[in-house]
Amino acid sequence: MYAQQQLIEEVTEQKQLTIPVSEHLFDEDVHLTGLVEYGISWADLTSGKAEIPLTGARFDISFEGTFAGPRMKGKIVGVDYLTVRADGRFKLDLHAHLDTDDGEIIDLYEDGILIAPDPDDEERIAQMRLNFEFVTTSSKYAWLNQVQGWGRGWVDWKTGKVVMHVYAA
């Protein structure tokens, strides 16, 4: 009972905090580690060799890397359950966890869009816009439970490198 009361008090205290809009939370530097294709080749789709089926396309894209910001840093691991709609819109649906350098684990959910590069663009850099939600029982990072985040970044389709800048919304 005492632990539950202590948690309620900590959460109540956290609600008193104000997190400035646009506060920089962290930057992600990740790379793609795996790919599951459901009936259409990712390489063919992203190179323009294949058309998006009328039913759309699905891919599971695994990733891992690091994150670092003014109040936290560590490793990130997750999967993007990507849907490519028939109209060409890439819908991102990421589930990940942040393992902080001080031993805490934070659940992370991201959703948003990816703007694919033109197939004729030799740079092959896609733009991303994401929303972020956090869940943790860590008292040190409980403030994240009250944060709605947003991010902007890019992915290099040739190398699989992803960079994301994350802010409080």
Note down, in words, how this protein is organized.
The protein is mainly beta and 169 residues long. The chain has a single domain, classed as Porin (Beta Barrel), CATH 2.40.160.20. The chain has helices at residues 2-15, 42-47; strands at 24-37, 57-68, 73-84, 90-100, 105-115, 125-135, 148-156, 161-168. Strands 1-2-3-4-5-6-7-8 form an 8-stranded antiparallel beta barrel. β4 and β5 form a beta hairpin. The two termini are 35 Å apart. The relative contact order is 0.20.
Number of helices: 2
- Supply Rg: 18 Å
Helix content: 10-25%
Structural class, judged by helices and strands?
Answer: mainly beta
- Outline the biggest β-sheet: 8 strands, antiparallel, barrel
One letter per element, helices H and strands E, the order comes to HEHEEEEEEE
Low-confidence stretches: none
Average pLDDT taken over every residue: 90
Spatial ordering of strands, largest sheet: 1-2-3-4-5-6-7-8
Tally of DSSP β-strands:
8
Using the alpha-carbon principal axes, give the shape.
elongated
Q: What share of the residues does DSSP label as strand, in percent?
A: over 45%
